[in-house]
């Protein structure tokens, strides 16, 4: 006789505080499937909860399990939902389900579809584990949800003897016989020397691909006798029977090597003919009350985290998928298992079982107009985690006739008299909420009420001020569009609000009208434009700057309403920051530290000072970043094409980037270098292009260093100076230095010998730390080598020599160190002219 664990559950009645729930989203997903998102608080913590309610009594509505093929392939809930979506099998919602093993990539617990075992899994040994009480969710033959404990019988037969084993894939206790398969977490049984173990090989996997109730034939290949300290190894195809205690050992005592044996696995009759069974745990709600089938003192029960559960009403006609997000301070902190169980009871459920949670907690639903479901909750990992099995709410309805429409004007706003506007359908749904293809040719305009507009083909033209409705049909079904017509414009709004550009360059001008705080659809060609100040000309909506720098304006008028756009024509850059102060600046860091300091010793490029950003990425994994941040983002004039600045590098090959905010607060990331591109030492001028799609006005938010490679995590420092905005393709690059009239003249093949007052570290005597550049900052291909002594180095001219008549400077960066590891205080700079 099989031994079944019996234990007493201590039911703790918890009084939990739930604030009034505030539905933030409620929608019919398909016939019989409904989604609701709720914001609430539990024990003072914010919670975001999503519930998918499935009415199994509705036609074309059911639930199924979704897995990959092979089962060892992990996929996101969204991906698995897409795989199972097809005609008359529309996955309209889903949640993550099975706990799974990261190493084997299979579900931890029992999973069956029909009478086929997809995964045997394992059960828990201890009362503080999820599966101490084997339980499952499934769908019965009459399409009802079922949550209940289950009993998996394991029967062996050999030499005419039929016996039942105690359990499977868990630790063996006294007086038990345990079946060990590859679903066990280890390669051996991990038992002690007591007892008897029989190794059986079969013609294929035991854990999957077998039918419930069908014997699995095998042959004994080895026996681990009593007293042998080495536990039996579990075969890839086969199993081990491990028994201890006379009654249990007697079940396998007579087996010998090469003996035939059969194993039959089956579930109790209550689960007969189930559509599927998915084991999980613990049970959370039983008979309408909180009744958790595990030790409530377990950290797994008390941890505040994200959770997923499936629940049913008393008849199984209603099934609920429920998720609560977690580990996101200020958004959703998550619940303990008792809190989650209490929330489920508040929904009126009668049975509920816990599913995989934490970073796996995911819910997807089908949005109107979409074919596939998409994410509706916020996973704590910041993205969907790949999982092994999901539960799917399915509509088996066929495609029907157009019934539900989402429609709008082709252009938002109210219509001006004399102007035209069309209409479109964003999506069309049938009576089962399936998305149908949208065919614009099937949309026919029929009439306009109140005489406010006339139909002209597929558009309407405003006739008189007022409100009304445009009646239309789509494939014979009625569709209507509200319409407002106006005969006045109160305000003109121009875009951009200001223009700054270079001589001979162009900029686009757009204008929209406002009436009673609403945008007006009107003909922009009716606006009369003039350009003042002689700064250029306007052809349609294109402004072309003149060939002379200056200031003026573009003025547009529509009746008595006017708008003015200030215009500056200049090829000069605009200073953003000379970094003479750090008052408005601060630092941030990710996976590292960052500090900011005003620099007045090292020679600046603009003015008297620069800023130094020190960073330390050591000891961190993943992408690290050190940010120079404007406490209040800096507002840029008009729409610059680029940002440029001087950067003093430390030679550490970082990624130099920046971030802007557009008019809508959206972050725009720009690149001053490629990844590992900040690879120089000393001052160098760099520029970052701003996407033409960036919507002005723009604000400078941050400049930062990033390091992606874990093996490149070191510390260092860089300096910034002379940040400027560039508006013209003709803006010249700033000079690296001003020519010194007192600089000496040298021959074009001049060889410099630099003498230090102490012995130097020769590893820094390279062209990376000692260089020659021209006035535009172009570094020359000089050769830097050690001199005759350790306190000297030699700088040889490039092949072919320096260019005659040009100014250069020789720079020994302050990064050069002596033999004691001490750096120079500042750069040593020598200007020279070439004869």
Automatic annotation (TrEMBL):
Top-rank taxon, per record: Bacteria
Keyword field contains Ribosomal protein: no
Name used for this protein in its record: Phosphodiester glycosidase family protein
Occurrences of domain Phosphodiester glycosidase (ranges): 216-390
InterPro entries recorded: NAGPA
Membrane-spanning intervals of the chain: none
Pfam families: NAGPA
Source species: Paenisporosarcina cavernae
Signal peptide start-end: 1-26
GO molecular function: hydrolase activity, acting on glycosyl bonds
Protein's UniProt keywords contain Signal: yes
Keywords linked to the UniProt accession: Glycosidase, Hydrolase, Signal
């Amino acid at each position: 006789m099989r031994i079944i664990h019996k234990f007493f559950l201590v039911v703790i009645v918890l009084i939990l505080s739930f604030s009034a729930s505030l539905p933030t989203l409620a929608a019919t997903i398909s016939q019989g499937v409904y989604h609701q998102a709720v914001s609430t608080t539990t024990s003072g913590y914010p919670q975001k909860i999503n519930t998918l309610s499935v009415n199994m009594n509705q036609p074309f509505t059911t639930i199924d399990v979704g897995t990959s093929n092979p089962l060892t392939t992990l996929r996101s809930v969204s991906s698995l939902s897409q795989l199972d979506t097809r005609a008359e099998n529309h996955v309209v919602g889903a949640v993550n389900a099975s706990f799974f093993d990261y190493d084997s990539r299979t579900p931890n617990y029992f999973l069956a579809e029909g009478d086929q075992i997809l995964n045997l899994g394992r059960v828990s040994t201890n009362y503080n584990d999820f599966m101490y009480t084997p339980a499952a969710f499934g769908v019965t033959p009459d399409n009802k949800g079922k949550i209940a404990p289950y009993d998996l019988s394991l029967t062996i037969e050999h030499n005419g003897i039929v016996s039942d084993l105690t359990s499977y894939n868990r630790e063996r206790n006294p007086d038990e016989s345990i079946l060990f398969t590859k679903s066990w977490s280890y390669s051996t049984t991990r038992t002690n020397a007591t007892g008897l173990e029989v190794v059986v090989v079969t013609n294929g996997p035991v854990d999957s691909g077998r039918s419930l109730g069908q014997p699995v034939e095998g042959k004994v290949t080895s026996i681990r006798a009593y007293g042998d300290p080495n536990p039996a190894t579990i075969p890839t195809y086969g199993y081990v029977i491990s028994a201890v205690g006379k009654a249990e050992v007697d079940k396998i005592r007579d087996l010998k090597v090469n003996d035939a044996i059969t194993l039959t696995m089956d579930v109790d009759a209550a689960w007969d003919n189930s559509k599927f069974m998915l084991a999980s745990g613990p049970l959370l709600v039983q008979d309408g009350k909180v009744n958790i089938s595990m030790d409530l003192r377990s950290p797994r029960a008390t941890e505040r985290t994200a959770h997923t559960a499936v629940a049913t009403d008393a008849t199984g006609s209603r099934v609920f998928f429920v998720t609560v997000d977690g580990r996101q301070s200020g958004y959703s902190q998550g619940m303990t298992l008792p809190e989650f169980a209490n929330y489920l009871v508040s929904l009126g459920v009668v049975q509920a079982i816990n599913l995989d949670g934490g970073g796996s907690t995911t819910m997807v639903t089908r949005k109107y107009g979409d074919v596939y479901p998409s994410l509706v909750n916020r996973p704590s990992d910041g993205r969907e985690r790949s999982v092994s099995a999901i539960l799917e709410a399915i509509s088996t309805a066929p495609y029907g006739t157009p019934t539900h429409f989402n429609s709008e004007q082709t252009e938002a706003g109210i219509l001006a008299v004399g102007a035209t506007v069309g209409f479109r359908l964003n999506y069309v749904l049938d009576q089962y909420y399936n998305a149908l293809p949208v065919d614009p040719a099937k949309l026919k305009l029929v009439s306009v009420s109140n005489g406010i507009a006339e139909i002209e083909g597929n558009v309407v033209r405003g006739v008189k001020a007022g409100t009304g409705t445009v009646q239309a049909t789509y494939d014979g079904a009625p569709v209507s569009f509200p319409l407002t017509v106006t005969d006045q414009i109160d305000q003109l709004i121009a875009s951009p609000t200001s223009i700054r550009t270079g001589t001979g360059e162009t900029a686009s001008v757009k204008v929209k009208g406002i009436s009673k705080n609403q945008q007006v659809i009107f003909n922009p060609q009716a606006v009369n434009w003039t350009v003042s100040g002689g700064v250029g000309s306007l052809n349609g909506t294109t402004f072309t700057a003149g060939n002379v720098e200056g200031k003026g304006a573009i003025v547009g008028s529509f009746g008595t309403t006017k708008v003015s756009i200030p215009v500056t024509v200049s090829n000069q850059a605009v200073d953003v920051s000379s970094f003479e102060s750090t008052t408005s600046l601060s630092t941030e860091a990710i996976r590292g530290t960052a500090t900011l300091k005003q620099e007045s010793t090292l020679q600046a490029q603009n003015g008297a000072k620069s800023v130094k950003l020190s960073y330390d990425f050591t000891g961190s994994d993943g992408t690290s970043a050190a940010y120079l941040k404007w406490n209040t983002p800096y507002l840029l004039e008009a729409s610059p094409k680029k940002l440029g600045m001087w950067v003093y590098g430390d030679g550490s090959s970082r990624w130099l980037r920046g971030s802007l905010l557009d008019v809508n607060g959206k972050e725009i990331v720009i690149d001053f270098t490629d990844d590992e591109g900040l690879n120089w030492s000393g001052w160098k001028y760099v520029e970052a292009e701003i996407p033409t799609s960036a919507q002005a006005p723009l604000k400078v938010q941050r400049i930062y260093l990033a390091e992606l490679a874990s093996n490149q995590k070191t510390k260092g420092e860089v300096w910034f100076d002379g940040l400027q905005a560039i508006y013209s393709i003709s803006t010249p690059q700033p000079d690296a230095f001003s020519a010194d009239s007192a600089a000496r003249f040298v021959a074009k093949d001049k060889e410099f010998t630099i003498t230090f007052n102490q012995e130097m570290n020769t590893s820094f005597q390279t062209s990376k730390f000692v260089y020659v550049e021209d006035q535009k900052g172009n570094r020359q291909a000089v050769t830097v080598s050690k001199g005759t002594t350790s306190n000297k180095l030699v700088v040889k001219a490039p092949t072919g020599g320096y260019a005659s008549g040009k100014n250069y400077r020789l720079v020994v960066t302050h990064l050069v160190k002596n033999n004691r590891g001490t750096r120079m205080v500042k750069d040593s700079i020598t200007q020279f002219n070439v004869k």
